[in-house]
Amino acid sequence: MDPFLEARALSTRRQFFGRSVMGVGTAALASLLGRGNLVGAAPSAAVKPRGLPGLADLPHFAPKAKRVIYLFQNGAPSHVDLFDYKPKLREWHGKQIPDELTGGRRFSTMTGNQTARPVLAEITKFAQHGKSGAWVSDFLPKIAEISDDLCFVKSMHTEAVNHAPAITYFMTGSEMAGRPSMGAWLSYGLGSETEELPAFVVMTSRDKEASCGQIFYDFYWGSGFLPTKYQGVAFRGAGDPVLYLSNPQGLSREVRRGMLDDLAQLNEIKRADFGDPEIATRIAQYEMAYRMQASVPELTDFSKESPAVLERYGPEVRRQGSFAYNCLMARRLAERGVRFIQVMHAGWDQHRNLNSQLKIQCEDTDAPSAALIRDLKERGLLDDTLVVWGGEFGRTPFLQGKIDDVKQWGRDHHPYAFSIWLAGGGVKPGFTYGATDDFGFNALENRVHVHDLQATILNQLGLNHERLTYKFQGRNYRLTDVHGKVVNAILS
Fold this sequence. Notes:
Blueprint: H1 3-19, H2 24-34, E1 67-74, H3 79-82, H4 87-91, H5 99-102, E2 126-129, E3 134-137, H6 141-145, E4 150-157, H7 163-172, H8 182-190, E5 200-206, E6 233-235, H9 253-274, H10 277-299, H11 307-313, H12 323-335, E7 340-346, H13 354-378, E8 385-390, E9 394-395, E10 413-414, E11 418-423, E12 431-433, E13 435-436, E14 443-445, E15 448-449, H14 450-460, E16 470-472, E17 475-477
Parallel strand pairs: 1-7, 1-8, 4-12, 4-15, 5-6, 5-7
Antiparallel strand pairs: 2-3, 4-11, 8-11, 9-10, 13-14, 16-17
């Protein structure tokens, strides 16, 4: 909404309440008692679900999914070692990759000036799995077992060649920080289904060896120019999941409630005077924090999870801050109505340690990723939950470094072709879409751009990506900028 129009609207409401006998108190009481309906009144079909309200005219059409879990693999998993089997790499191992592939292409500074670019064969073993015959590396045995539930896209491509711009591109639709993230767009457009938890939650983890220097920047889940109430709430990896979740010693919940009520009245006075949407955000966030004091302890209590479920996620599931812990938390958040759950794991940046670290990253993420899909499916949640797994780009089919220095083998950043997979939420299970050339260098068949993926995700939640916009500095912005097309071929 235009801030000047909102200020005018707020001023009108202030005058109205000022002339009313009971004023704001009546409105607040009605809100507390009925959340849009008077006590005893029949609920209207037009009333939005409880929680953060979305835009009145959304969704644009019937959605296939209610929520998204994005398992983002920071650092970029090597597609040619995990999903995109290319026998040509073994045939050409140690030989210079054809110049017609690399000529004029941008790479990071780590191989941009490297003249010798020998082809590096896959360091894993591939096999076909399930009825679909999907090719999956032996480093990912649990994901291989659920391959018939997955939709592989092997023709992804992007434009960024460095991590932070590339991740920002996936999360916000722009390589430059400052745009709203995908979760913020969905919170803004669709709101949430719960009052007890945020609409958009973020959890991060990293490799235990700290071999990957990737940093989790707040703008990966920021709200950009949208009001900050739509930004993601980051759960911490140690201690209280959210800062100040516990009241100070000697402060009861009843006293806290009274303090928040008084503070809300003061903030409402300022909001009525200035029409600043950030004041409304402050009020909403205080209330959310109060409700989370009751909801988060139950959310993080795994005592009622069966031993079989916990075992499925792996031995790290009880370690707060691990990828396994965050995957189980993602399922529990999905059950409780959270709209967008962003799980980010750093550790895939194998420039000089491919032979040692790739297997470790796969061991940390394979079982939890597969367990999440199985868990959602068994609970009837997979049909209306869209799960996305993938990184910001792929890895080069050629070697970074020298072919005879086996311990230092690595692969550089590769934006021209890479693989991701999706599950649930109305995408085709047991399906592979797109293809690369014989070296896994270029996406050739059914190419899918970052904006195409974003448009498809929004589509599954009932949103036309060209119509979900926000006016800022005189221009209507959207997640997909001025690009993007829905990849209908992967939709069931």
